Amino acid sequence: MTDVDRVAANFARHLQVNRALALATVDTYARVARQFLAWRFGHAAVCLCDLRPSDSIAFVRQESKRMAPPAVKGVANALRSFLRFGEFLGEVPAGFAAGVPSVATWTTTPPIPKAIDAEHAQRAIDSCDRSTAVGRRDRAVLLLLARLGLRACEVIRLALDDIDWDQAHLRVCGKGGRQSLLPLPTDVGAAIAAYLRDGRPTCDDRHLFLRSMAPIRGLLDGSDGVGSIVRYALKRAKVDAPHHGSHQFRHALAVRMLGRGASLLEIGQVLRHRSPQTTSIYAKVDLNALRTLVMPWPGSAR
Questions:
Q1: Looking at the domain assignment, is residue 266 inside a domain?
Q2: Does residue 243 have an active-site annotation?
Q3: Is 250 a catalytic residue?
Q4: Is the pTM of the predicted complex or chain greater than 0.70?
Q5: Using one digit for the tens of pLDDT, what is the confidence trace for 253-287?
């Protein structure tokens, strides 16, 4: 375990024991802390006493270049929590966390979902080299994103025991620890089987997808996990996607279902939304239905 991993693990333990935060929040905050420490200290020893207010500003500014404002706001919140942990340890001056910049995320309406084009998604999947272990792993991950609309965190949490090969079912642990059984499409199952048969490293870790380089363990959140798989696939396929995150595959599945006549209720069930309001954002991309609601322009031909 590196020094960065050690400090991040202590922070996660603090959030869980002393703050009693939800496991998903703990994972997210610990991931941001790990990224911040790796950015600031690299492979050197972590010394929180060496942190400066300019470090948090520079890190948030860097993240704002590749993330949407709501995501950057989450980074800032996690970073404040980590710096307060440093204050709790006595290694960071009191009030240091207040120096983390605020992120404006106001909006009057939910944004239009940014979905990758179906052709571009297939090109990204086809760009994986199935003759290599990494290529087989990446192809299976991308198919899970595209065919089942899984979130990146759900792909990372998948374990070997979550696959029921006899019933062709996949158990998915979603937000809030809610578990769902999803059908396992033939092409997705074949891709996973190919990775397990000839690609997955021998390891005691029960996660379905593992890193290809030491230390051999399950994929991590952020740039070390599903995000990097998506970015490299888009780059190989020379795809100019709406953005480089994995969620665009989830949006694409919803848009494709909508185009084939599925109702918002059906889409919400497939994406496992808890609230119909969450699914309602996809009504914005149903242009044919929206045209029936448009009022004629004054003076135009009817």
A1: no
A2: no
A3: yes
A4: no
A5: 888 888 888 888 888 888 888 888 778 777 666 65
